[in-house]
Amino acid sequence: MEGLLRKTFRALGTVNTIIVPDTCSDALQKAAQRVLELDDRFSAFKEDSEISRINQAAGLNFVKVHSDTFGIIKSALRFSQLSEGTFDITARPLVELWGIGKKENWVPSPGEIAARKQLVDFRDIILDEKAESIMLRRPLQALDLGGIAKGLCSRRSPENFIGIRMQRCAHQSGWNSDYTGRSPHSWNSGPSKRSGDSHGKASDNELLTGRLRLI
Asked: What is the pLDDT of residues 145-164, one digit of tens each?
């Protein structure tokens, strides 16, 4: 029976775990590095990330970005259009108001919420396709890719993610899980929880074989 290699690390505001057969150690390292590179571009917390630079330039000017960043924002806009704004990556001002992870038991006032909601509108994201540049139309607007970045990373197979072909692998990023290749068991991906595990953490073999119970 083949052995497994596992790498767990923090990126994209959560814990990531990548599991591959033990014959694919190079691919494991390259996949983890790729996730960290995307975190450097997509993070709303790192001041020098491309998302932070877009936020800092809101209402002022376009920001030239990497094709990774341009592509994910373009995809996010498509989902915003399909959901008629239910999904909106300009929700950062509201996220900051709640202070998630910073303020304990904090609930903003209705007036504060109403004021910040005025800044949330995906239609204010302006794309320059030719220059791969992005601008927010109004000052104080801000992007947050927390609702899409983890899924992007976990759903890219090693073949198109880092240019390496593997028969099987698994990547869990927060509650996002995805699997590549054929398995003796049917794949079950999505928000998942192992039976009897109150923390929702899957074992290496469960991730690699896809034996996860959906909840």
From this structure: 988 888 777 665 454 455 55
CA distance 79 to 89: 10
Q: Which residues contact 133 (CB under 8 A, 6 or more apart)?
A: 62, 63, 64, 65, 127
Please, what are the domains in the chain?
4-41+150-214 (no CATH), 45-145 (1.10.3980.10)
| Lowest-confidence region among 18-22, 38-42, 76-80, 207-211 | 207-211
pLDDT (0 to 100) of residue 66: 96
**Of 64 and 166, which is predicted with more confidence?**
64
Q: Per the structure block, which two tokens stand in for 197?
A: 């595990």
Rounded Cα gap, residues 209 and 90, in angstroms? 37
